[in-house]
């Protein structure tokens, strides 16, 4: 997957909130591609709501991964500003998409609650050598499986662990490297 992750005006310093917005846009695209990959492999999704559920599981995984990848590079306040911005931008995207698919409602809070719940669970999973470990990938795969359709559902966890996670890492690393680069 190709992502545009360089700033147009390189001579301007970006705030962590701005970086969070840009990263959110790219994470949304990575999550959409993950969903598309699953559907192209024949895994079943039946409704737009279910597709958004899969995307939100990808987002929860990716947000936690980004947080862990940037934990050492940012101080506590910077990390909080960045991750809060990232979550707020993603919550707005979820709100817009769920409103289109499901009608009016508050979809931001349930998404933020999902991020917090998954963050607590993912925090227990090791990341050896900066890579999501087996437990990390397995939990993500099981979370996706729980919101997928029934057709071939038992295999989706393996697909996520063995194919989708490795495919998300290169564009994610590139995004973080380029958007946090000091021009």
Task: Characterize the structure shown.
This protein is mainly alpha-helical and 183 residues long. The chain has one domain (16-179). It has six helices and no strands. It has helices at 16-40, 48-70, 76-102, 108-122, 134-147, 153-179.
Key attributes of the depicted protein:
183 residues, mainly alpha
Could you describe the largest sheet, including whether it forms a barrel? Answer: none
> For the CA atoms, what is the radius of gyration?
16 Å
Question: How far apart are the first and last residues' alpha carbons, in Å?
Answer: 24 Å
N to C succession of SSEs: HHHHHH
Structural class: mainly alpha
Shape: globular
Q: Find the count of extended strands (DSSP E, 2+ residues).
A: 0
Strand content: under 5%
Helix content: over 70%
List segments where confidence is low: pLDDT < 50 over at least 5 consecutive residues: none
The residue-averaged pLDDT reads: 90
Number of DSSP helical runs: 6
Give the count of structural domains.
1
């Amino acid at each position: 997957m190709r992502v545009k992750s360089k700033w147009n005006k390189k001579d301007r310093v970006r705030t962590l909130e701005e970086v969070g917005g840009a990263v959110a846009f790219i994470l949304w695209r990575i999550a959409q591609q993950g969903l598309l990959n699953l559907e192209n492999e024949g895994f079943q999704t039946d409704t737009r709501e279910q597709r958004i559920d899969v995307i939100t599981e990808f987002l929860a995984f990716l947000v936690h991964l980004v947080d862990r990848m940037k934990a050492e590079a940012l101080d506590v306040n910077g990390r909080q500003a960045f991750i809060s911005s990232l979550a707020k931008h993603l919550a707005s995207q979820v709100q817009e998409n769920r409103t289109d698919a499901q009608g009016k409602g508050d979809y931001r809070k349930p998404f933020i609650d999902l991020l917090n719940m998954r963050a607590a669970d993912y925090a227990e999973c090791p990341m050896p050598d900066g890579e999501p470990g087996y437990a990390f990938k397995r939990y993500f795969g099981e979370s996706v499986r729980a919101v997928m359709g029934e057709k071939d559902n038992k295999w989706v966890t393996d697909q996520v662990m063995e194919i989708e996670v490795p495919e998300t890492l290169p564009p994610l690393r590139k995004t973080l490297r380029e958007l946090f680069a000091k021009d």
